[in-house]
Amino acid sequence: MSKKILILDPQKEVNYRISKDTSGGYGTGNDFGYSLIPKILKNLLKKYSDWPPVHVAYTHSVLKSLNYFVKYSKKLDEMDNDFDFYIVVSSIVCCETELELIKNLKKKDKKIFAIGPFATSMSSLYAKAGATVILGEPEFFFLKNPDLSEECKKEKVNISHNFSLDDLPFPSWDEITGDMSKINKLFGNYKSVPILATRGCPYSCSRYCVYPLQQGKKVRQRNIKNIVEEMEYWNSKFNISMFIFRDPVFSINRKHTIEFCNELIKRNLKIKFMIETHLRILDSELIKILKQAGLKGVKVGVESAVSDVLKQESRFTVTQDEQLKKIRELEKLNIQVSAMYIIGFPSDTKETIQNTINYAKHLNTSYAQFSVWTPYPGTPVFEEYKDKIIVKNYENFNQYELVYSHLKFNQSEIKKFLNDAYSKYYSRFLWLTKFIRGYLIA
Predict the structure, then answer these.
(1) What band does 230 get if pLDDT is binned at 50, 70 and 90?
(2) 204-209: which pairs have CB atoms within 8 A and are 24 or more residues apart?
(3) Distance (Å, rounded) from C-alpha 23 to C-alpha 16?
(4) Is the CATH code 3.80.30.20 the one for domain 179-440?
(5) Which CATH architecture has domain 1-178?
(6) Structural domain boundaries in the chain
(7) What is the pTM of this model?
(8) Is the dihedral angle over the CA atoms 326, 332, 336, 339 positive or is it negative?
(9) What tens digit of pLDDT does each residue of 397-416 get?
(10) Torsion angle, CA of 421/210/216/154, rounded to 10 degrees?
């Protein structure tokens, strides 16, 4: 009889979406605000967009391929006491909830692993609670260590980034979600699943970015046919027609991206996909072939409308003229754009925040995301701000709350800026007509 493993993905009870896959696997809690429009947006996102981190789905499929009985759950039920091993999915946004669960399991003398980027960065927290912490990418740990009995006796296990993504079986989204007919619907009425083409990011923004903490800076990419065959599998078996790429920066390797597009075009699968990338990577030739292959949506970081603010925080982007030009070029091809903005930078003032909100309205993309500047534990910038942290729990680091002492604003003032940004952006007639048009031609 095969041994039984329970993957536990605990989440605290809140009225907004918790996503442990975003912000490099640290997770976010999408608490947009307190007035009508932010509340509506929170409810929609919580209802229609929910999936665990990609590394969790890969971990599930790896363990299944090793003939373990594997179950995924967000809650520990009374019937879940007879598993041989327990794997707790870590995040910053549910940290205290996860630690409490580990402590309770430890009291029952259970064998526990903690996985994910946050457990990797804050390993002592999870080890002290009673878990064996897998440092790095957990799916490769389980792939290379099929016998877990000895491994769970260790406090920490280190995993390098020297493995091929092609060695992994396709993620077990069908078993994790349970009902593929109700899976995420982010764009129009398309059922969608997350997918991965690359891992790792070589850019210098590791001063504040958490992606390199688990994935490393070296870019590793899947074989083109391996990616497309996964898309074909979900499309043919479950009629999935939208794929959300969770790469830190999609199209970072231009040659790889063009080969991927050509393979999709050749197979004529009639599917669509969404990517997150930098505007400086996109050019007219690449945009056109991505569109031909099925590109439907692009997430890009704009962050601030004020160049001095970006410069002081070592953030770099293209000029505003170039931003507008590339965004309009994408939109002319009916590619929806989601622009991401940050308020509460250390150098932000009332004027710079308002300028950013006004600039977002000027760009008038199909979607706009406003979040709060957050110095994450494990990054170099956290060391600069650790003495200015004003919250007690890691769960407050949800990217929508001020967690440090700002020179000009308190927490309630930043929350009002955030609330007003969403309210003002999504209440405009210009945005509404654009969104409806995009929905109808989706």
Answers:
(1) very high
(2) 204/314, 205/314, 205/315, 205/316, 206/379, 206/380, 207/314, 207/379, 207/380, 207/381, 208/313, 208/314, 208/375, 208/376, 208/379, 208/380, 208/381, 209/24, 209/379
(3) 16
(4) yes
(5) 3-Layer(aba) Sandwich (3.40)
(6) 1-178, 179-440
(7) 0.94
(8) positive
(9) 999 999 999 999 999 999 99
(10) -140
